Amino acid sequence: RLDVVRLQLPPLRERREDIPQLASRFLVSAARRLGVAAKAISPAALARLQAHAWPGNVRELENLCWRLTV
User: Fold this and answer.
1) How far is the C-alpha of 59 from the C-alpha of 1, rounded, in Å?
2) How confident is the model at residue 1 (pLDDT cuts 50, 70, 90)?
3) CA-CA to 50 of 20 to 30 Å: which in 23, 25, 34, 44?
């Protein structure tokens, strides 16, 4: 059964302080899977990411990190 434990997490737009850590993890993960060096995000770019509304939530951030790595 998959519906045994329910976790309630606020959307990414309500926890913007998590964005730098999540982005870093997603970039490292993508780089490993693609066999390339991990990318880094500048402080200015992180500020832009934190200002974004994130309608796609965490999956949108993960997909962005994949596109940046490719």
Assistant:
1) 23
2) low
3) 34
DSSP per residue, 2-65:
--SS------GGG-GGGHHHHHHHHHHHHHHHHTSPPP---HHHHHHHHHS--TTHHHHHHHHH
Contacts by 44-50, CB closer than 8 A, 24 or more apart:
46/19, 46/20, 49/19, 49/23, 50/16, 50/19, 50/20
Residue the block writes with tokens 């997490």: 9
Report the C-alpha gap between 12 and 55 in whole angstroms.
Answer: 9
pLDDT tens for each residue of 17-55: 999 999 999 999 999 999 999 999 999 999 999 999 999
What's the mean pLDDT in 3-16? 88
